Amino acid sequence: MRDGPLTRWEHSQQRSHTVVDVPRIPRLRTRQTLTALLVVAVGSAGLVWLNTGDDPPPVSTRDAFVDLLSGPARDEPVKIDTTLYLPERTPAPAVLVAHGFGGSKESVESDARELAQRGFVALAWSARGFGRSAGRISLNSPDYEVADAAGLVDWLAKQPEVVQDGPNDPKVGVTGGSYGGALSLLLAGTDKRVDALAPLITYNDLGQALLPNSAGSQAPGASPAANAFGADGVFKRSWAGIFFAAGMGAAGLANPTTDATEPGTRENANTGAVAGAAPAGVPGGGRPAETADPCGRFTEAVCRAYAQVATTGRADQQTVELLRSVSPVSVTDKITQPTMLVQGEQDTLFGLDQSDATARQISAAGAPVKVVWYTGGHDGGRPGPELRGQIADWFDFHLRGQGEDPGTGFEYAVRGALRAQGSPSVRTVTAAAYPGLTGGQATERRPVAVTGDEQTVVNPPGGNPASISGMPGLGAVISGSSQLAGRVAIDLPGQSARFVSAPMTGQLLIAGATTATLRVSTVGGAPAPDGVVLFAKLYDLGPDGVRTLPGSAVSAFRVTGLPADGSPAEITVSLPGIVRPIEADHRIELVVSTTDQSYATPAQPATYRVSVAPGTSLSVPVVPGTRSSSAPPAGPLIGIAVVLGLCALAAVWGFVRRRRADDVDPDLADVPMVIENLSKSYPGGLKAVDSLSFRVERGQVLGLLGPNGAGKTTTLRMLMGLIQPTEGHIRVFGHRIHSGAPVLSRIGSFVEGAGFLPHLSGRANLELYWAATGRPLERAHFTEALEIAGLGAAVDRKVRTYSQGMRQRLAIAQAMLGFPDLMVLDEPTNGLDPPQIHQMRDVLRRYASTGRTVVVSSHLLAEVEQTCDSVVVMHRGKLVASGAVEDIVAGGGEATFRVDDPETAAEALRGVTGVHGVTIEGDLVHANLDGTPRSTALTVLVRAGVAVEQAGPRRRLEDAFLQLVGEEAAP
């Protein structure tokens, strides 16, 4: 970045802009209009007929802090923050709804409300150490979190709205996802008052989930997703780090015993950031923040275990025992209640092998078990409304005896290739039972041969660079992209061995964990003390060479005790549990790698040989079943088709109407943006934007200012077509803005933060973004945009190495791609240091100097004053001021004069009628001119013999801003 003459690119961009006329659609005749209105009316009536139904039943809530006793002797008090959701009719059975790790009772508010609308009393609570509950995180310890849940069952037994089975025995079920799902299993295994349970996307053995070892000496079992669950696993470093970070929230914050207490930092269910802790005075509560406790809100035992694994990459016996004690595997042999296990097929944290083990163990205890695999998970999202309805049906039958028996079958979802509105098609396959359970048939397995010679692979020093299988914590974003899901995997040359099958002659539907028998040996001496750590993946290899890693899943395993003479050891590896249709002409590719970015790998360099054991094939699980169909009878189906046809006609008419509404004002064709009488209202009477009008000209850098809640972001979202105004409109280069308006392609934006893939370079991220727009490559102007952003050679480095300032500049470069005529930026200097802010200021000015326009929303008033030439000030949705920065600043009438004789100057100014507030500050004289022209004051000073070196407004933009929004400047 530099000040000075314009670059070659800037000179080339100082040119005229051509406006292309948009063809206008002919006006429709009156008969056409009436016909279209009739179609809309009939279609609407059909939709109303199809969707006839009552509004959801009302639900009332009751918040309370419940005092419980926990600990080994049940003598340690703790306060737990709860919300009770009450249905329209009580008494009713109750359902405990537990939240995931890093969440709170607010995280499961919608689930609890849905259950209450189905007629259950639902109890949501913040587990100890989360939200506003006291206590420290013990990872679902039987003495703490599980004891807390049992105490809540005691509390439900005292509530008149809950149906009772007997004294201190409420009719109760329990559900929850992830951390909450494990709690559901642990509670059911220790408290027989639980009558039914439905745990979701959870673990069986936390030790095996975070330190998996998928290798053994023989095949793991008869169920479809069984895993070897060997000892001495490989540390799943990335996911474990996310967990630990989620429990590191500030200690000693909120005190739930007083209404006036403010909760601490609010938690986010996606990132796991934790809310305020319990009061330090409560046993088991938080510690004062100034102690800077490295354990955060974890107990010392949990903290020690994490530190031990994180620093060594392996779990000692004490850690193994701790993780097993807080895992459902410790109690599954005691669970006899009806259990519905729901597990996600897109889950690199808790795979299908975890629910597989739980199903086998509970079935062996004699409990009825239903297993459902769905397309979501920690990397794919929560269950949809249909699956949530099945869970409610499960409780309906087992808690109230209502509805059909949901049985003990097995369902799994198959994501297809056909896409509807950007989403893949999904079908459900239903089998009579989950294969391999007690008394049932084993899983059908089909051999698939793979070929490939023995291959040499290298573990690099420090395990870096590493292959990539998935992106823990960001998988949900990636899985939502049709182009990226399963395709971000990277296997580095020299570190991975590949074995490929012949093309499929027909579709092969994999449903579970494929097993492979491998031979592994060392090269150049005995293996390191850590043993041989490897990672196995199963790819779908298309005929065009495109490789897809289903579920971004990988199996980690460790092989120890290899012969020092280089002789091979033969092991059976369980590959990740997946559901994937391998289509005809596709191949299966088995990849074995020495590294994976998400795991801790040995630091010592080593070389291994890997091969598929001679005479063996991949053993692929197949679970036949019937394809679920929810097709209605023929009569309603015909009715639906008619209504959909009418709606299609109505949609065409709506499109025509929208194209007519998308008029072009030729008088504004060269004006970047005009906002006229813009308003946006929300239900409940909230008016975020109120009759806003202003205009932006070419070459301007305009600052959009206002306090929180002023309506700035709402205005920008309407400008981008993300939401529609209630009244008024926005025109960009004469075109009226609406969702999907073609003129939006002339706007570059950085409004809600740019998401970059950290393992790719800055340039690759920009190329991927531009490819998603579908516009020609030659129109991107990568080189010129990067020249303005000033990233230099760093653009070819991986984004994960970038500083915050570099990420911001990359985001600006992304917004500049294609050289939009209007660029809209929201807080572009966030996280930048002063030199970086200065560089960003230069970037924006240089871009505007080419005749383009920049709109900047920022809270840094000093930067707006130095960067922008015009400002718009909003307050409570209204425009309170607009104009040039210098006019806004000078609007208060205060002026400053730098003079050679301050005393004489002050005396002369005091003699001018209307001038007041004259003060002296060194060689500066300040005065409130109160409407007196500054030229008049200068004339008075000159006549008094005072030499004036400088004259100008006294106020800063910040002072003007605070006055405009009705607030006083801070002292």
Automatic annotation (TrEMBL):
Coiled-coil region list: none
**Region called Disordered, residue ranges:** 256-289
InterPro entries referenced in this protein's UniProt entry, alphabetically = AAA+_ATPase (IPR003593), AB_hydrolase_fold (IPR029058), ABC_transporter-like_ATP-bd (IPR003439), ABC_transporter-like_CS (IPR017871), Galactose-bd-like_sf (IPR008979), P-loop_NTPase (IPR027417), Xaa-Pro-like_dom (IPR000383), Xaa-Pro_dipept_C (IPR013736)
Q: Where would you find the membrane-spanning parts of this chain?
A: 637-656
Recite the UniProt keywords alphabetically.
ATP-binding, Hydrolase, Membrane, Nucleotide-binding, Transmembrane, Transmembrane helix, Transport
Q: Where is the composition biased (Low complexity)?
A: 272-281
**Highest taxon above the source species:** Bacteria
Classification via Pfam families: ABC_tran, Peptidase_S15, PepX_C
What is the name attached to this protein's record?
ABC-2 type transport system ATP-binding protein
Record the organism: Actinokineospora iranica
